[in-house]
Design brief:
homodimer, alpha+beta, Arc Repressor Mutant, subunit A, Dna Ligase, domain 1, three-stranded antiparallel sheet, 4 helices, 6 strands, about 35% helix, DNA-binding
Chain lengths: ~140, ~140
DNA sequence: GTCATTGCAAACGCTTTGCATCTGT
DNA sequence: ACAGATGCAAAGCGTTTGCAATGAC
């Protein structure tokens, strides 16, 4: 057992707001995007607070974090349906794909190396069929 | 074939230096790291020039680019041996792993969606066996 | 009342860019 | 000589942090 329930501290309105905004979005979002959404909802929260709330949630293992190609950090609720992205590097089209094979492989190599409490991220970049062969 | 040979422009000493340093490193490196290496080799190249050279190579499709969890961009020669990383989020230890299963899965889903010329990135985060159960 | 959290703004690290200089052809 | 590449330093962007004010318990 890895005692994961340290999450019993989200007392403030702001942290609840961030958590719920993230929840509603459902997929990966950036801190700045969440900040803008909250502000437009009238539920104004400082940008720094959004970052801090997201960090706290990440530390608690409540959210996954990864970086976009542009260097922006994006966050997603852990319990969200887990899928990967297939991105066309020409037109930007994105397809969400699921991969039991990948999940299993990740679990296996983690176990082989004695790692526990693992998450993973994977993205595939290519050129989709609607884009011309000659760029 | 996708006519990839647009790479006929690397006339200057600095661009050659960056390309070779990247070549010698063989795995993902950051621009700043390359800059430090070049400087220590006496082959001083401006940091901005390193960035520009890497951008040019990426535009030509000669290198793959991705972002570390800390937001740093890392570059790798396309032809390099391809493996993934298993990262301990507690002590930072990194294990390089190879995964035929993942490669095949990536190829398959890409094909299923009509994508071509694909690359992928994957990283697994967990806690390694040398780190205490209770953080 | 006490202590953690907020918010603002300044600091920070990585990357990009403007501009004068230099290099290769 | 000219076009493009270089280097420096400043700007840019997302993120983090210091500190006084605020809010929760």
């Amino acid at each position: 057992m890895t005692a994961p329930e340290t999450s019993t501290r989200r007392p403030t309105r702001q942290q609840v707001a961030v958590a719920e905004a993230l929840d509603e979005h459902g997929d990966f979002t950036s801190a700045q995007d969440l900040h803008a959404v909250l502000r437009s909802q009238g539920n104004s929260v400082g940008l720094a607070t959004v970052y801090r709330a997201l960090q706290a949630m990440a530390a608690d293992g409540e959210v996954d974090v990864l970086r976009t190609a542009e260097g922006e950090a994006v966050y997603r609720r852990c319990s969200s349906s887990h899928h990967h992205h297939l991105v066309c590097r020409n037109c930007g089209r994105t397809v969400e794909v699921e991969g039991p094979a990948v999940e299993k492989w990740a679990t296996r190599v983690s176990a082989e190396h004695g790692f526990r409490d693992v998450t993973h991220q994977m993205e595939i970049f290519g050129v989709c069929m609607k884009c011309p062969t000659d760029d």
